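Interim report, section 4.2 (structural modelling).
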Amino acid sequence: MSYLEFLGQYGDRILSGTLVTIVLTVLAAVLAVAIAVAAGLMRLSRNALIRGVATVYIEIFRGTSLLVQLYWIFFVLPLFGITLEKFTAGFVAVGMNLGAYGAELVRGAILSVPKGQWEAALALNMSPAKRMYRVILPQAVLIMLPPWGNLLIELLKGTALVSLIAVADLMFQVKQINGTTFLSAQSFGTALIIYYVLARFLLTPFMRWLERFMQRKLGRA
Amino acid sequence: MLDWNWQFTWEILPRLIVATGNTLLAAGLGYGIAVVIGLVFALAQRTPFSVVTIVVREAVEFIRSTPLVLQIFFVFYVGPQFGIRLSPWTAGMIAIGLHYAAYLSEVYRGGIESVPKGQWEAATSLNLSTARTYFRVVIPQALPPSLAGMGNYLVGIFKDTPMLSVIGVAELMHTANAIGSETYRFLEPYTLVGVIFLLISLPTAAGIRLFEGWVRRKLGMVS
Amino acid sequence: MNAQDLSAFPMALQGDNVPMVSFKNVTKSYGSLVVLDALDLDVAEGEMVTIIGPSGSGKTTVLRMLMTLETINEGVIYVDGEPLTHMPNGNGLVPANRSHLRKMRSKIGMCFQHFNLFPHMTALENCMEGPVHVLGLSKKEARERSEELLALVGMAEKRDQHPSRLSGGQQQRVAIARAMAMRPKVMLFDEVTSALDPEVIGEVTNVIRKLVAEHNLTMLMVTHQMGFAKDISDRVCFFYGGRIEEQGTPDELFGNPRRERTQQFLSAVKEAV
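Predicted structure of the assembly:
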């Protein structure tokens, strides 16, 4: 079978798998950003309990494997009465895992905003919340956007693991195709190229655009 | 905790500990490959032959942008299609080693670029050979700033070894899966796997930070 | 870089009084910025030549080109009668290859503004690195030579210290010993006191005075220390816009500058002090 015939026969399944991967990536990314901001800010709290909760969360999710977390959420959490449908379990695990990494980016970026900015905001008698939202966070966002670009590529790659709990993403589809055709180079190779294209020609340009957009918005361009 | 069976826990613990040995072995072997190949990738991108630079650069980008689990499948299944049969261990080590070599090459590159230009010029003024300049002047100075990144990826490769279970490498995750499908109990094996990972990765990360400080002192680079 | 016509340049300088260093019609530019403009400069064996001038006048570039840290656009540089930037090939000159550069570099030593000591090696190891691994000396010979030179620069007691434990003046003295350990015929000093605190400048200039007095070295020095240049040089070159605007003995140049730009520069420097 030529490669074109292969694509003709299995293109639909590969395409539908790709779409599932994209949707998973977007949902997991939204969750990861929300968790990262929350946990990152909690890590900077003056309250030791709040700080502790965030630290435990971050250490657990960064200290173990995404695959372990995925299996735990899918197979063990139901024993606690929380049953997630496999698709939900998939993007929740990926989002929670990358959110823990993102929290450290948020924290680091906030801490790297120059001290003079905190003092200037204080001198204007802004409330702590105002200080954070009006002065510090906008500057921190610019600092953390480049590493978030890398993190989102990790997130996209992480979604491939949900195929192991039978979510029909790109990885799952090509594994099935390989199982029936044994055309491993064609099926896995095609998937490699698609992931590469998604990361390099969709995600990376989007993050570049976002960086430029934020720079313009904050008058740094 | 609900339904936690201690007796079952003690029964499966020895198996999981044996499997932990395999996990550590896989991480160690994979990391060893990655450390060496990563240096090759990094140095290849500094050759004056621009074709080599571009090809290696793109290969590193490609490896870094695609999922490791897919690369593991690819290496394991594509061989037999062309008559090359790789054992799960061999295929797994190739895939995970190359994957982390790509990451480490970026760490090395950053470290090499952090060496001040004056150091290269001093090496030229002393007429040191290119090899001597790299191995005696540049790499020792590129090492300390690279250690944090290298340490992160050591912990990273350890945490990625569960993916080797998909081609049947008998590491922790694979063993936990096996226990789960034999006994239909998932709570204990999966939780224990998580705990074992935490128990190893957290102290390792802390140990790496200590090691980093020690190397800096050792090289006389504390200022 | 366009291939230039090299047929006008001899394959080697011959005869009596061949200069140790000779720049012949040397041009260096970065894009449209011309740093050296058709420079001719000869330095005799054993001569101490100081280059002064405003920043951007190309004075550091002269030293960096001699050390082969910069490529050449036009012209040829000769060291000890042999072409440095080029090499003979058949009956003409061609750009030098790596092995020619390595051979020629062994005649030249350089000290830098920021010392550039290797931070992971002790003072002694810094000095021994070249002699052992480039010149092929035994460890013992290299150690003896290095210890002798460290004693000369007054750093014998600090030989086992890493650079991070040394002051700027001490680091620069080690750097001078390191360069001298290669037994160069030509020594280059590139603003070696510019990065130093005022109170330690003397310890470095004293070492250079000693070298001038005790060794028959050819030296080129770029400096902002006019008093030091006046004391120590055989000849002073004032650079302006990539050319030698004026040159002469220290007495001539500092005592009776003829060109207006030289006068302006010297009076501006005097005011700053």
